[in-house]
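so my prof wants the structure for this chain in the tokens format not the other one, which i didnt know existed until like an hour ago. anyway here's the sequence
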Amino acid sequence: MNSTSTFSDKNILKQALAESFVKLDPRVQWKNPVMFITWLGAVVVTGVTFGRAGQGESFVFEMQIALWLWFTVLFANFSEALAEGRGKAQADAMKKTRAHTMARRIQNGREESVASVGLRKGDIVVCETGDVIPGDGEVLDGIATVDESAITGESAPVVREAGGDRSAVTGGTRVISDRIMVRITADPGSSFLDRMISLVEGAKRQRTPNEIALGILLVALTGVFILAVVTLKFFADFAAEGAGQNLSGVVTLPVLIALIVCLIPTTIGGLLSAIGISGMDRLIRKNVIAKSGRAVEAAGDIDVLMLDKTGTITLGNRMASEFFPAPGVSAQALAEVSQLASLSDETPEGRSIVVLAKQLFSLRATSLDPHHAVFIPFTAQTRMSGVDIKDPQGVRILRKGAGDSVRKHVESQQGHFPLEVQATVEAVARQGGTPLVVSEGNRVMGVIFLKDIVKGGIRERFAELRRMGIRTVMVTGDNPLTAAAIAAEAGVDDYMAQATPEMKLQRIREEQQKGHLVAMTGDGTNDAPALAQADVGVAMNTGTQAAREAGNMVDLDSNPTKLIEIVETGKQLLMTRGSLTTFSIANDIAKYFAIIPALFGGLYALQGQEGPLAALNVMGLSSPQSAVLSAVIFNALIIVVLIPLALKGVKYRAMGANKILQRNLLVYGGGGILVPFAGIKLIDLLIVGLGLV
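here's what i got, hopefully its the right format
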């Protein structure tokens, strides 16, 4: 849902409008000191208006000021309510998936039917085809395809199985096929979906450290401007007495209150909460759940990005691209052995080897009798796979795998590992490929070149991050030669080869000790410590429950590349807040120099002419009353004008902090000075033309 659709959604607009009046409660206003001052000012001016009306005096001017002060508060409330309304609309959609279903709980070895709300952490339930998974959990036994579209919006089913990094299931999703046994990992009310709804609704949103710091700055500025306006009354009385004039009809209490409201930073004060809420909302629309506003903000401050190679920097599916036979071996013989050794390999790599042999040499393994073949699966210990084929001459032992593993296998059978093959292995690794060595018995047949394709445009993305002062670190389990080649092709700043979970955790701690803020992604239980240690830890929704609990964000699409978008969203949040703060402060300064000359233009005037201060009234505002009323009206309307920008965010630009500051000062600082002059002058002409003053 974008900002345009928000403004076209009548239900959200109606709810936000109603909430604007509810938020007039002083207990709510007190949480925002700047707007609370405005609220107090509206109350006081309203009281003055009724007082003048009761005494039979003219109150039209005071009444207009009171109305526009109330509008200022209402518009600020509306911006916050509108941001919250978008989140509540998404939360309502999520609530529809949180149906209270019946669960098949295993108790003392027997199956019993209970309501899902009665499940507790540690309970074991069974889910079969068509069942709704009753709560968050881990698959203990079995494998099943699960429809998670209610949570992720993705229609394609996903596989969930016991063990590994795809064992977590979410309550409210539906089993499409097969049967699994699930251990519940969350009590009612604290499930992943429950927490998502609370966060999206903003019910548990706390102000971030930067918001608190900015709030303190705004309060300080408010205090300065209040002091300036209060002393202005004493200056006006002193100057009027010296000039023999009476300014009591010009510098009135409503005018001073209006001046205070116009000068304090009401623009950013009214939009600050909406900016923070919309930052989380933009992540939600990218299918990322941030567990706190602090996490979104931290993403904007990140300067070190740790990215897994596979699936993030590369496409992830390594494809066989070439056969390099060993000395004395033909390319066709190597292709034949490679194909036979890969027939039972269901990985994309294994299938690509079979296809390449078929394409190059029309090999189809038609002579292989499955009854005479024993397929050897790949294991992390052997790092090889293959097949043992019985024929009249004996048993053909065909293997393919990592170079060092095949070397040990061949040498254990009194074979020899040729230097030429070792050179080919190193050459393939230097090119960024993955070398697979193939053997038959104790003879090395050659090398298969598996190419890992770097994603298109990823180098440019990293260049953008570099311009923003973010250093990228590629994390991979590949050997150093392969890692170096991929890193060079992708354009990352650094890499970690043969990385283990312990190495990732240690690297994060080292970077943090140097004063850096680190972001990383992960999906497995072994990633949980690093995710918890990282300043921004993005867990994949397809990952384990431990990973999802450890991270402070969850990517519902389970797309590792999303980490880059998360950082950009965090940067955009900070850029939006900085831009509107710059505009607001410049705006206040401009209003000061627009109003004061018009207010005191008649001071020291002789024989009904303009006074010397009137020369500073460069805008030619009609009268002190029109100047004040125009400024108050502009002050209220500018909040409405900036609401779409606060919700959508300023356009993201890949620039360093210094360039962003320079641009803010030029565009938003300059605009904040020029726009009030033009806006106030236009409003002055309108209200004078309409006879409102």
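also thought this was worth mentioning. The chain is about 50% helix and 15% strand.
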